[in-house]
Specification:
290 residues, mainly alpha, 16 helices, 72% helix, globular
Length: 290
Protein backbone atom coordinates (compact mmCIF):
# COMPACT_ATOMS: atom_id res chain seq x y z
CA UNK A 1 0.00 0.00 0.00
CA UNK A 2 2.80 2.44 0.88
CA UNK A 3 4.35 1.88 -2.54
CA UNK A 4 1.11 2.40 -4.49
CA UNK A 5 1.26 5.69 -6.41
CA UNK A 6 -2.49 5.84 -7.04
CA UNK A 7 -3.33 5.41 -3.38
CA UNK A 8 -0.79 8.09 -2.47
CA UNK A 9 -2.32 10.46 -5.02
CA UNK A 10 -5.80 9.80 -3.64
CA UNK A 11 -4.55 10.53 -0.14
CA UNK A 12 -3.12 13.85 -1.31
CA UNK A 13 -6.42 14.82 -2.90
CA UNK A 14 -8.21 13.83 0.31
CA UNK A 15 -6.12 16.56 1.97
CA UNK A 16 -6.72 19.23 -0.65
CA UNK A 17 -6.98 21.82 2.13
CA UNK A 18 -3.21 21.32 2.69
CA UNK A 19 -1.89 20.92 -0.84
CA UNK A 20 -2.60 22.99 -3.93
CA UNK A 21 -2.34 21.27 -7.38
CA UNK A 22 1.31 22.23 -7.98
CA UNK A 23 2.28 20.78 -4.59
CA UNK A 24 0.42 17.56 -5.37
CA UNK A 25 2.32 17.24 -8.63
CA UNK A 26 5.62 17.82 -6.86
CA UNK A 27 4.68 15.27 -4.19
CA UNK A 28 3.97 12.68 -6.88
CA UNK A 29 7.36 13.38 -8.46
CA UNK A 30 8.98 12.87 -5.07
CA UNK A 31 7.06 9.62 -4.66
CA UNK A 32 8.40 8.34 -7.99
CA UNK A 33 11.93 9.28 -6.99
CA UNK A 34 11.44 7.49 -3.68
CA UNK A 35 10.44 4.31 -5.50
CA UNK A 36 13.67 4.70 -7.49
CA UNK A 37 15.72 4.73 -4.30
CA UNK A 38 16.30 8.46 -3.73
CA UNK A 39 16.75 8.78 0.05
CA UNK A 40 16.26 12.56 0.09
CA UNK A 41 12.94 12.13 -1.73
CA UNK A 42 11.97 9.48 0.84
CA UNK A 43 12.67 12.02 3.57
CA UNK A 44 10.38 14.55 1.90
CA UNK A 45 7.66 11.92 1.51
CA UNK A 46 7.98 11.19 5.22
CA UNK A 47 7.38 14.88 5.97
CA UNK A 48 4.36 14.91 3.65
CA UNK A 49 2.82 11.97 5.51
CA UNK A 50 3.48 13.81 8.75
CA UNK A 51 1.61 16.85 7.45
CA UNK A 52 -1.37 14.56 6.88
CA UNK A 53 -1.07 13.17 10.44
CA UNK A 54 -0.01 9.79 9.06
CA UNK A 55 2.83 9.36 11.53
CA UNK A 56 3.37 5.61 11.25
CA UNK A 57 3.58 5.93 7.46
CA UNK A 58 6.05 8.76 7.93
CA UNK A 59 8.21 6.52 10.12
CA UNK A 60 8.15 3.85 7.41
CA UNK A 61 9.73 6.19 4.86
CA UNK A 62 12.22 7.51 7.40
CA UNK A 63 13.36 3.94 8.00
CA UNK A 64 13.67 3.36 4.26
CA UNK A 65 15.86 6.47 3.94
CA UNK A 66 17.92 5.53 7.02
CA UNK A 67 18.69 2.14 5.47
CA UNK A 68 20.30 4.14 2.66
CA UNK A 69 22.49 5.96 5.22
CA UNK A 70 20.58 9.24 5.09
CA UNK A 71 21.77 10.96 8.28
CA UNK A 72 18.87 13.44 8.43
CA UNK A 73 16.42 10.54 8.29
CA UNK A 74 18.31 8.91 11.16
CA UNK A 75 18.00 12.14 13.13
CA UNK A 76 14.25 12.34 12.44
CA UNK A 77 13.84 8.70 13.43
CA UNK A 78 15.65 9.46 16.66
CA UNK A 79 13.13 12.22 17.31
CA UNK A 80 10.23 9.85 16.56
CA UNK A 81 11.53 7.23 18.99
CA UNK A 82 12.28 9.86 21.62
CA UNK A 83 8.78 11.39 21.42
CA UNK A 84 6.84 8.20 20.60
CA UNK A 85 5.68 9.83 17.37
CA UNK A 86 4.23 7.22 15.03
CA UNK A 87 6.10 4.47 16.83
CA UNK A 88 6.52 3.14 20.36
CA UNK A 89 8.71 5.41 22.47
CA UNK A 90 12.22 4.06 23.00
CA UNK A 91 15.08 6.15 24.34
CA UNK A 92 17.48 3.34 23.51
CA UNK A 93 16.54 3.36 19.83
CA UNK A 94 16.50 7.16 19.77
CA UNK A 95 20.03 7.12 21.19
CA UNK A 96 21.13 4.61 18.57
CA UNK A 97 19.86 6.70 15.65
CA UNK A 98 21.24 9.94 17.06
CA UNK A 99 24.62 8.29 17.53
CA UNK A 100 24.75 6.95 13.98
CA UNK A 101 23.78 10.33 12.54
CA UNK A 102 26.16 12.23 14.83
CA UNK A 103 29.05 10.01 13.81
CA UNK A 104 28.22 10.91 10.20
CA UNK A 105 28.48 14.62 11.05
CA UNK A 106 24.86 15.60 11.71
CA UNK A 107 25.09 18.56 14.11
CA UNK A 108 21.63 18.44 15.75
CA UNK A 109 22.05 14.71 16.33
CA UNK A 110 25.33 15.41 18.12
CA UNK A 111 23.50 17.87 20.38
CA UNK A 112 20.67 15.44 21.13
CA UNK A 113 23.14 12.63 21.73
CA UNK A 114 25.00 14.85 24.20
CA UNK A 115 21.72 15.62 25.99
CA UNK A 116 21.04 11.90 26.37
CA UNK A 117 24.51 11.28 27.81
CA UNK A 118 24.05 14.22 30.18
CA UNK A 119 20.59 13.16 31.39
CA UNK A 120 21.01 9.38 31.26
CA UNK A 121 18.29 8.81 28.68
CA UNK A 122 18.74 5.52 26.86
CA UNK A 123 22.29 5.29 28.17
CA UNK A 124 24.18 5.63 31.45
CA UNK A 125 25.00 9.19 32.49
CA UNK A 126 28.40 10.09 31.09
CA UNK A 127 29.41 13.73 31.52
CA UNK A 128 32.65 13.23 29.61
CA UNK A 129 30.84 11.92 26.51
CA UNK A 130 28.21 14.64 26.88
CA UNK A 131 30.93 17.30 26.94
CA UNK A 132 32.59 15.78 23.87
CA UNK A 133 29.40 15.73 21.80
CA UNK A 134 28.30 19.18 22.93
CA UNK A 135 31.70 20.49 21.83
CA UNK A 136 31.24 18.81 18.44
CA UNK A 137 27.74 20.24 18.04
CA UNK A 138 28.89 23.70 19.13
CA UNK A 139 31.71 23.60 16.59
CA UNK A 140 28.98 23.14 13.96
CA UNK A 141 27.13 26.26 15.17
CA UNK A 142 24.40 24.60 17.26
CA UNK A 143 23.61 27.46 19.63
CA UNK A 144 21.75 25.23 22.10
CA UNK A 145 24.91 23.16 22.51
CA UNK A 146 26.93 26.31 23.20
CA UNK A 147 24.45 27.28 25.91
CA UNK A 148 24.59 23.86 27.55
CA UNK A 149 28.38 24.01 27.51
CA UNK A 150 28.08 27.27 29.41
CA UNK A 151 25.99 25.51 32.06
CA UNK A 152 28.45 22.62 32.30
CA UNK A 153 31.48 24.89 32.69
CA UNK A 154 29.66 27.15 35.16
CA UNK A 155 28.46 24.29 37.35
CA UNK A 156 31.51 22.07 36.91
CA UNK A 157 29.65 19.14 35.36
CA UNK A 158 32.30 16.66 34.26
CA UNK A 159 35.13 19.08 35.04
CA UNK A 160 36.19 21.79 37.47
CA UNK A 161 34.10 24.96 37.14
CA UNK A 162 35.59 27.49 34.72
CA UNK A 163 33.72 30.78 34.87
CA UNK A 164 35.52 32.46 31.97
CA UNK A 165 34.89 29.54 29.63
CA UNK A 166 31.29 29.34 30.81
CA UNK A 167 30.72 32.98 29.92
CA UNK A 168 32.49 32.49 26.57
CA UNK A 169 30.00 29.79 25.61
CA UNK A 170 26.99 31.75 26.87
CA UNK A 171 28.08 34.80 24.89
CA UNK A 172 28.72 32.81 21.73
CA UNK A 173 25.28 31.22 22.02
CA UNK A 174 23.68 34.61 22.69
CA UNK A 175 25.37 36.12 19.64
CA UNK A 176 23.99 33.19 17.67
CA UNK A 177 20.45 34.24 18.63
CA UNK A 178 19.63 31.71 21.39
CA UNK A 179 17.22 33.56 23.69
CA UNK A 180 18.00 31.57 26.87
CA UNK A 181 21.66 32.46 26.41
CA UNK A 182 20.79 36.11 25.78
CA UNK A 183 18.85 36.12 29.04
CA UNK A 184 21.73 34.45 30.89
CA UNK A 185 24.26 36.94 29.54
CA UNK A 186 21.91 39.70 30.66
CA UNK A 187 21.79 38.32 34.20
CA UNK A 188 25.58 37.94 34.23
CA UNK A 189 26.02 41.62 33.45
CA UNK A 190 23.17 42.61 35.78
CA UNK A 191 24.79 40.98 38.81
CA UNK A 192 28.47 41.00 37.80
CA UNK A 193 28.90 37.23 37.61
CA UNK A 194 31.33 34.82 35.94
CA UNK A 195 34.26 37.22 36.14
CA UNK A 196 32.38 40.02 34.37
CA UNK A 197 31.99 43.52 35.73
CA UNK A 198 28.47 44.66 36.52
CA UNK A 199 27.14 46.57 33.51
CA UNK A 200 23.47 47.52 33.44
CA UNK A 201 23.74 48.92 29.93
CA UNK A 202 24.90 45.55 28.61
CA UNK A 203 22.29 43.74 30.70
CA UNK A 204 19.56 45.93 29.22
CA UNK A 205 20.82 45.25 25.71
CA UNK A 206 20.71 41.47 26.14
CA UNK A 207 17.33 41.44 27.86
CA UNK A 208 15.96 43.53 24.99
CA UNK A 209 17.37 41.06 22.44
CA UNK A 210 15.77 38.10 24.23
CA UNK A 211 12.52 40.02 24.61
CA UNK A 212 12.31 40.30 20.83
CA UNK A 213 11.57 36.57 20.75
CA UNK A 214 9.15 36.82 23.70
CA UNK A 215 11.50 35.44 26.38
CA UNK A 216 9.27 35.96 29.38
CA UNK A 217 11.94 36.34 32.09
CA UNK A 218 13.81 38.91 30.01
CA UNK A 219 10.63 40.90 29.45
CA UNK A 220 9.91 40.81 33.19
CA UNK A 221 13.45 41.94 34.02
CA UNK A 222 13.11 44.93 31.71
CA UNK A 223 10.00 45.97 33.60
CA UNK A 224 11.80 45.49 36.90
CA UNK A 225 14.77 47.63 35.82
CA UNK A 226 12.52 50.52 34.77
CA UNK A 227 10.26 50.27 37.81
CA UNK A 228 13.15 50.33 40.25
CA UNK A 229 15.50 52.68 38.36
CA UNK A 230 18.28 50.09 38.23
CA UNK A 231 20.85 51.58 35.90
CA UNK A 232 18.15 53.45 33.98
CA UNK A 233 15.89 56.39 34.89
CA UNK A 234 12.73 55.27 36.60
CA UNK A 235 9.91 54.98 34.07
CA UNK A 236 6.64 53.56 35.29
CA UNK A 237 5.10 53.65 31.84
CA UNK A 238 7.88 51.54 30.36
CA UNK A 239 7.72 49.23 33.35
CA UNK A 240 3.99 48.77 32.74
CA UNK A 241 4.62 48.06 29.06
CA UNK A 242 7.04 45.24 29.82
CA UNK A 243 5.11 43.87 32.78
CA UNK A 244 1.93 43.69 30.70
CA UNK A 245 3.81 41.79 27.98
CA UNK A 246 5.10 39.36 30.61
CA UNK A 247 1.66 39.09 32.19
CA UNK A 248 0.08 38.17 28.86
CA UNK A 249 2.65 35.39 28.60
CA UNK A 250 1.53 34.11 32.01
CA UNK A 251 3.93 35.70 34.50
CA UNK A 252 2.25 35.84 37.91
CA UNK A 253 4.63 38.31 39.55
CA UNK A 254 4.31 40.74 36.63
CA UNK A 255 0.58 40.98 37.33
CA UNK A 256 1.23 41.85 40.97
CA UNK A 257 3.79 44.46 39.94
CA UNK A 258 1.29 46.05 37.55
CA UNK A 259 -1.19 46.27 40.40
CA UNK A 260 1.45 47.91 42.58
CA UNK A 261 2.32 50.52 39.94
CA UNK A 262 -1.35 51.50 39.62
CA UNK A 263 -1.82 51.54 43.39
CA UNK A 264 1.22 53.78 43.97
CA UNK A 265 0.81 55.84 40.82
CA UNK A 266 4.38 55.31 39.59
CA UNK A 267 4.57 57.72 36.62
CA UNK A 268 0.90 56.96 35.87
CA UNK A 269 -2.30 58.16 37.57
CA UNK A 270 -3.36 56.08 40.54
CA UNK A 271 -6.08 53.67 39.50
CA UNK A 272 -7.56 51.40 42.15
CA UNK A 273 -9.85 49.70 39.65
CA UNK A 274 -6.93 48.68 37.38
CA UNK A 275 -4.87 47.65 40.40
CA UNK A 276 -7.67 45.41 41.66
CA UNK A 277 -8.14 43.89 38.20
CA UNK A 278 -4.50 42.86 37.91
CA UNK A 279 -4.22 41.67 41.50
CA UNK A 280 -7.32 39.52 41.04
CA UNK A 281 -5.86 38.11 37.84
CA UNK A 282 -2.73 37.12 39.75
CA UNK A 283 -4.73 35.54 42.56
CA UNK A 284 -6.88 33.65 40.06
CA UNK A 285 -3.73 32.31 38.38
CA UNK A 286 -2.47 30.96 41.69
CA UNK A 287 -5.88 29.53 42.65
CA UNK A 288 -7.57 28.71 39.32
CA UNK A 289 -10.06 26.26 40.78
CA UNK A 290 -11.33 28.37 43.66
Amino acid sequence: MLYDRELFEKLLHDHIEIFHPEQIEEALNLFNRSLDGDSNAMLEIAFIYRMMDKYSDSVHWLKEAALLENKKAMYELGNCYFEGLGIEESYEKAFSYYKRAAEMGHADSANNLADMYLNGEGVEVNAKEALNWFEIAASQDVVEAMFTLGIMYEQGIGMEPEEVRAFHHYLKSANGGYEDAQYRVGTVYLDGLLGQEKNIEFALKWFEKAAETHHIDSIYNLGFLYENALGVPRNGKKALYYYKRAALLGDYQAKLNIASIYELGIDVPKNRKEAAKWRNAAMHQMQPFD
